[in-house]
Amino acid sequence: MFLLHEYDIFWTFLIIASLIPILAFSISGLLAPVSEGPEKLSSYESGIEPMGGAWVQFRIRYYMFALVFVVFDVETVFLYPWAMSFDVLGVSVFIEAFIFVLILVVGLVYAWRKGALEWS
């Protein structure tokens, strides 16, 4: 039978974990000084007087390059548990890992042909 009193520690932790950031933001909002002026609203470039606008557009290619890197970097982390328990799991897991790597290679070839790996 599902008993709610078994989860008292969980609910206590959840309430405290929710209240701490709310209280921290509330207190900092009340105590922080508010001073808006031209220096506060200008962009800061290491103490040098800013040149041009702060809203400079970047090419989407930089973001795509970073996204492809993160995807393949995270996916290779999934290979580590398979490699550590390869001798115990057997041939079926090897075939699954091979299919997984094959899907990664297909994704890499697709990204390469689309030009997502070109920096310039």
From TrEMBL:
Assigned EC number: 7.1.1.-
Catalyzed chemical reaction(s): a ubiquinone + NADH + 5 H(+)(in) = a ubiquinol + NAD(+) + 4 H(+)(out); a plastoquinone + NADH + (n+1) H(+)(in) = a plastoquinol + NAD(+) + n H(+)(out); a plastoquinone + NADPH + (n+1) H(+)(in) = a plastoquinol + NADP(+) + n H(+)(out)
Molecular-function GO terms, alphabetical: NADH dehydrogenase (ubiquinone) activity; oxidoreductase activity, acting on NAD(P)H, quinone or similar compound as acceptor; quinone binding
Give its localization. Answer: Mitochondrion membrane; Plastid, Chloroplast thylakoid membrane
Can you name a GO cellular component term? NADH dehydrogenase complex
Q: Name one GO biological process term.
A: photosynthesis, light reaction
The primary location reported for this protein is mitochondrion
Lineage: superkingdom: Eukaryota
Q: Which UniProt keywords apply?
A: Chloroplast, Membrane, NAD, NADP, Plastid, Plastoquinone, Quinone, Thylakoid, Translocase, Transmembrane, Transmembrane helix, Transport
**Membrane topology (UniProt):** Multi-pass membrane protein
Which residues are listed as membrane-spanning?
Answer: 12-34, 62-83, 89-112
Report the InterPro entries cross-referenced here. Answer: NAD(P)H_OxRDtase_bac/plastid, NADH_UbQ/plastoQ_OxRdtase_su3, NDAH_ubi_oxred_su3_sf
Check the record and name the HAMAP family matching this protein: NDH1_NuoA (MF_01394)
> What family does this chain come from, according to its entry?
Belongs to the complex I subunit 3 family.
Q: Any idea what job this protein has? A: NDH shuttles electrons from NAD(P)H:plastoquinone, via FMN and iron-sulfur (Fe-S) centers, to quinones in the photosynthetic chain and possibly in a chloroplast respiratory chain. The immediate electron acceptor for the enzyme in this species is believed to be plastoquinone. Couples the redox reaction to proton translocation, and thus conserves the redox energy in a proton gradient.
The record's note on quaternary structure and interaction partners says: NDH is composed of at least 16 different subunits, 5 of which are encoded in the nucleus.
Its protein name is NAD(P)H-quinone oxidoreductase subunit 3, chloroplastic
Q: Which organism is it from?
A: Taeniatherum caput-medusae
